Structure prediction request, 311 residues.
Amino acid sequence: MEPILIEGTPKTPTIKFDSATGEFEIKGRSIPENSVEFYRPLIDWLDLYKETPNNKTVVNIKLEYFNTSSSKCILDVFKKLETIHKAKNEVEVNWYYEEDDEDMLEAGEDYESIIRVPFKMIEIVE
Amino acid sequence: MSFNVESYFSDLSGKNPILYYKGNIDSDLINKLLDTVEEKLISSNEHPRLRKRVYNVLVESLQNLYHHVGSVPAGFKDQTSEKFGILSIIKLDYGYRIVTGNFILKEEAEELEKKIVRINNSSHDEITELYKFILNHQRISVKGGGGLGLVDIARKTGNKLEYAFKDYDENTSFFYLDILVNGNK
Prediction:
């Protein structure tokens, strides 16, 4: 399966989903008006990936900003990961937040409370 | 019944904004406003937490306008703006006020007011639970909104949403929303 590599823009994040290594990354800003359009290819890709996932999938989320419409799409991404985890594959989410950014930490904790996948909250100290 | 929405807006929002815009709200305009405000926040040396909060609230406010504004009433002078909105940002000693104005159909105004009242009557913990409930259970609407914008604003700012509705014509109201963003919750 081909990896997904999408360059970031001021309103959309950099995406690197590599099925060969099982390493996924969402990084930057996710504030598009139409987030469904942006995230649909990722969701479709994850639907294929979950058929033959790596033994271990590590997901690094390094978001500076995201809007509420992206928050639903990000939840959809996590729900796909939850399915993979339920099927007895290792899945780990690393949720990065900048020092003092308690809003971003809370956002990570929201997902952690909804999704049954292990989360690690990682503070980036400058 | 119609009135001058700009003077009404300015009377409520006050003078000397650091940024004022009125007109059509499209995606390019949102980009420009966000860039301008971010530069101002950085050059004012605001604490990163306040800077991020203001930016987040501004994103949600502008996208609320983008997704939800009602069409411009027939009697209104600006007929070229498909999505007419007003934005004003006022700097305070301890934070910022982000103020928006837009037209809304009266039937939608009722629902919106119910939602605001519910948010304003909720504690911070209740707002957090409401946010998570909507996040997990409500789909993105045909208009493209997630139904989370105002809840997120109330949660991030920790402040009540100040608002007003004023009848513009038989079918339309003008919606005024005044959000205080300060450093602490």
Q: What stands out?
A: The first helix of chain A runs from residue 35 to 49. The interface with chain B takes residues 10-11, 31, 33-36, 65, 67-69, 71-72, 75, 98, 100-104, 106, 110, 113-114 of chain A (CB under 8 Å). Chain A has a mean pLDDT of 96. The radius of gyration of chain A is 14 Å.
